[in-house]
C-alpha cells in the first residue's frame, strides 16, 4: 500500500476503502467525501496514463541562456584576476567574495557615469586596493621587479662561492676546500 504515492495502481478512494477494511482507518475517522464518492461514483474510473512524448516532427526547443549584466563584469574579473586572493568561506552566511565586491564596486562606478568603459575596470581595481583588498592581475608578479630583493634571484652555488670569497684564507671554488685536520687528543 505505501509503495507509491501517485495514483498509478489505485485511486485515493480504493486506498481509503482498503485501509478501512483492514482496520487502519476507523469508520468514525473516514474522510467527509468518502460517502459522497461511494454513492455517486464517477462514470469513468480515474486512471493514471503516462503521457507519451511525441518526438517525431517537432524540434525540441532550446532553452535560452540567461545572462545578467553583472555576469559580464564577473567574467572580466575572473579573466583579469583569476579567482581572487582568498578562497570562499562558505561557513559564514555574511561572507562576500572578492568577485562580488568587485561587481558591486563596478556597478557603483558605472551608475555614477563619470568613467568610460575602458577605464572602469582599472578604477574599480584601484578602489578595491584602496580598501586594502589584495587584488592581483593574472600574469603580473605581486611585487614589482625593481623592489624585489636581488638575493631571491641568486642560486645556492653562487651564494656559497660568494661566502667563500669573503672568508679569510682566499678564494676557493665550491667543492675544492682544503681539508682541515683536527687533533684527536688535545693535550
TrEMBL record:
Residues 2-131 form the Small ribosomal subunit protein mS23 conserved domain. It comes from Oncorhynchus mykiss. The keyword Ribonucleoprotein applies. Belongs to the mitochondrion-specific ribosomal protein mS23 family. It is found in: Mitochondrion. Residues 161-187 are annotated as: Disordered. GO terms for molecular function: structural constituent of ribosome. Keywords: Mitochondrion, Ribonucleoprotein, Ribosomal protein. It comes from the Eukaryota. This is Small ribosomal subunit protein mS23. InterPro entries: mS23_dom, mS23_dom_met, Ribosomal_mS23_met. GO terms for biological process: translation. Pfam families: MRP-S23. Signal peptide: none annotated. One of its GO terms (cellular component) is mitochondrion.
Amino acid at each position: 500500500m505505501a509503495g507509491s504515492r501517485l495514483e498509478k495502481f489505485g485511486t485515493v478512494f480504493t486506498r481509503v476503502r482498503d485501509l478501512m477494511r483492514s482496520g487502519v482507518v476507523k469508520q468514525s475517522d473516514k474522510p467527509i467525501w468518502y460517502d459522497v464518492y461511494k454513492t455517486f461514483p464517477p462514470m469513468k474510473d480515474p486512471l493514471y496514463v503516462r503521457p507519451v512524448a511525441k518526438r517525431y516532427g517537432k524540434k525540441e526547443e532550446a532553452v535560452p541562456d540567461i545572462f545578467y549584466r553583472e555576469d559580464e563584469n564577473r567574467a572580466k574579473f575572473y579573466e583579469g584576476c583569476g579567482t581572487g586572493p582568498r578562497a570562499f568561506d562558505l561557513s559564514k552566511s555574511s561572507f562576500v567574495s572578492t568577485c562580488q565586491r568587485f561587481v558591486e564596486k563596478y556597478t557603483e562606478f558605472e551608475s555614477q557615469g563619470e568613467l568610460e568603459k575602458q577605464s572602469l575596470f582599472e578604477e574599480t581595481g584601484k578602489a578595491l586596493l584602496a580598501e586594502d583588498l589584495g587584488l592581483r592581475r593574472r600574469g603580473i608578479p605581486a611585487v614589482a621587479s625593481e623592489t624585489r630583493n636581488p638575493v631571491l634571484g641568486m642560486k645556492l652555488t653562487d651564494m656559497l662561492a660568494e661566502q667563500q670569497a669573503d672568508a679569510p684564507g682566499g678564494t676557493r671554488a665550491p667543492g675544492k676546500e682544503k681539508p682541515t685536520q683536527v687533533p684527536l687528543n688535545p693535550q
